[in-house]
Amino acid sequence: MPNSHPTLRDVARLAGVSHQTVSRVINGSEDVLPETRANVEAAIKQLGYRPNAIARSMARGQTHTLACISPNLTDYTFASVIEGAETEARQHDYFLLSSSATDPKAFHALVDELVGHRRVDGLIVINPYSDDRFQHIPEKFPVVFVGAQSHEQKISSVCLDDEKVAYEATRHLISLGHKDIALVTGPMEEDCSLDRTEGYRRALQEAGIPFDDSKIIEGDWSATSGQDALLSFVEQGRVPTAVFAQNDRMAMGVLRAARDVNIKVPTQLAVIGVDDMPLSSYFDPPLTTMRQDMPRIGQEATRMLLDIIQKKNTDQREVKLSAQLVVRQSTSDKGGD
Amino acid sequence: MPNSHPTLRDVARLAGVSHQTVSRVINGSEDVLPETRANVEAAIKQLGYRPNAIARSMARGQTHTLACISPNLTDYTFASVIEGAETEARQHDYFLLSSSATDPKAFHALVDELVGHRRVDGLIVINPYSDDRFQHIPEKFPVVFVGAQSHEQKISSVCLDDEKVAYEATRHLISLGHKDIALVTGPMEEDCSLDRTEGYRRALQEAGIPFDDSKIIEGDWSATSGQDALLSFVEQGRVPTAVFAQNDRMAMGVLRAARDVNIKVPTQLAVIGVDDMPLSSYFDPPLTTMRQDMPRIGQEATRMLLDIIQKKNTDQREVKLSAQLVVRQSTSDKGGD
DNA sequence: ATGAAAGCGCTAACAA
DNA sequence: TTGTTAGCGCTTTCAT
Questions:
Q1: pLDDT value at position B104?
Q2: Which domain holds residue B14?
Q3: What distance in Å separates residue A176's CA from the closest CA in chain B?
Q4: Which residue places its CA closest to the C1' of nucleotide D8?
Q5: What's the gap between Cα B139 and its chain centre?
Q6: Is the CB of A12 inside 8 Å of chain B's CB atoms?
């Protein structure tokens, strides 16, 4: 057993059969005499033979590998989606290659390498917020979007029902009696931010609360941007009684700022976020939020993608998942923890 | 330009040269007449030809892909290491395939698929805490460990200098006048927890503070376990004046528990962690911690691995990085934020 | 400087 | 049921 690994032919030679028979055995074909099979299997074991995945991909014209591109890996939301996708892919004997691309340039380079060079059979793109992103993906190549729908092209997608989630979050604040509700959004070039803003607007309207542009501040999903948002309200001397932050990290920034300027939560200010990160319940006070099932999103996306690859279902589909209100003390003293 | 993609031969035909010449062009060989090269490049552009990575791997016997296995992707520490590794790999034109394996069984299956089936040229293993993990990796296969050193085998590794980091963290508490310092550890089967415990012990010893086993509680890195740890001290009626939690999440759990039972931080209780997660500075109070440079760890690991793969440096190396004390208000009212 | 031939390790026809 | 013959798309000798 020298340096190089045994091949199909080595096994065949040892078992005294043709290499094709060995191929049949490792691929579980029925058309092999039990005795022959046993022989071959013995030879395989003896040599410690393992089929070479690359050669297989080569011959089959498929890599049995999927790729998942996200803006980064450290964002808990993305990581959870990827974990869900990975689990599902593995269940179907596919590999998932996860890579991150922060800017459009890196994104294109990645797509080129992954898709152009045929390294993968399909692609999941998380948060494809800028439309020009997918124009570089060849048509007909299996792609699924996560976290946004496609506008121009007919690409399947799975995401949170952002409008509904925001509506429900805002409803929660309204149901607690709030009328002066500020909004901290994600970057406005992301659909998700727009949709969540829409849901906020609808809830206000429905409750007969006038919509006020100046109560909306655009953040960038970071805790810092949430903190800055509240501080800017403080500076302007018009602190709202409630804040809906479009994600938990920004909500945590709001909580932090409130603490710093001595605004009591939830009595003077109620705060709600979206996500339910593991640390959200450890914050001071524990954060009320709309919990989304991120692994599930990854799982759905992977299923869709495999359906497309395996031609089971090529229709464009758009799955929207809902989120669940988790009440904690940032909105109500009576909230659980 | 139908379904299937143009190959080397298609380009060759169009350019009126042999496929070999095309190969030379795409591989940047010098031995091609400028004119020929221009011809070929024109043909490549015209057909939209991209070399097939799989076929290349096949012919070269190398995949130009690395794998990184971690217990999960959602842990911020792991994700950061992976991001660092990915960036570095990409700089060297390698791909990084990141996968997670929670239990040993999944780990072995992954190694089998990745290494046994020759999908990758090298492997980075994050937190290989149980020794039997790497016994299933074939000898001589390029591997680098992150977060732990190898005991039995001579495998290169890069990790935090855990003993030193813990020593410094404990020193910080001691320098603030604390003598009753509790320790919340990670799982004791992980080297990292043992080493950090050792550093804690050394700092106490050096300061002439008696070491007391009952002040050590084993956690599992989760915030919950940190919370439970402090609560159990409270129940026993022997609350320490300071806690060194071996990571930030557990430290946050300790802070949360302190809040719940009305122990004032830092006046009644000082708390220090390790990592410096993005949210650590947003906690109440902001958490003092030993900041580690995780992307750097991933970067170092990748460099080592590539050195091994490219035979530049096959020696076993063990890199230990240090961490930086970041003082915030969980240990000192005077701390920055 | 360019081309022809062989082969990487496998699968997919087809034949026997 | 098994074996034979061709490739998959590329790189690597070795000629020319």
A1: 85
A2: 8-51
A3: 24
A4: A59
A5: 23
A6: no
